[in-house]
Predict the 3D structure of the following.
Amino acid sequence: MATIKPTLSIVSNASDATIPGPLSVALSLSTTVDVTVVGVESGTMTVNTADNAAGILFDGSLAEDVDGGVAGADGSYIYMKNMTVSGGTGDIYVGVGADDDAATQEMATAEDPHRMFTLKPQEFAFFPYDHTMDIHLDTSTDGTKLEWWRFDRTAATDATP
């Protein structure tokens, strides 16, 4: 087993500063937690619109879900980053679907029930994942690059997307 130390730091100036922040006071928020992991996988992929949806990045029915989907008992931490250059085009839509959903979720519409969030160019997300749902991807622009990392909290057999 190994330990990672994810840290989130949000810093901004007060709204009356030369480079103004969003609040009337300066903000300095930071949190860190040690996480025990038993495996790490990573990769990059090109997301295209021609696929009608890029498909499934992670399948929630994989073998590492050995407890039948009990929240918090198995799982991973997922890191995703839209690698599109700053100022470029190419949003990545990230959503979830049941394990038996087809990998053809079109998430470009504003009211899609599967879409959880959008990663704009150079934006990232880091979140826990219990392996109980599939993680789907779609994009607004062909050739959008996604970098991903999965830090397993439990022993995974084979979870390569």
User: Anything to note?
Assistant: The first strand starts at residue 2 and ends at 4. The mean pLDDT is 82. Residues 40 and 151 are 5 Å apart (CA to CA). The domain at 39-152 is CATH 2.60.120 (Jelly Rolls).
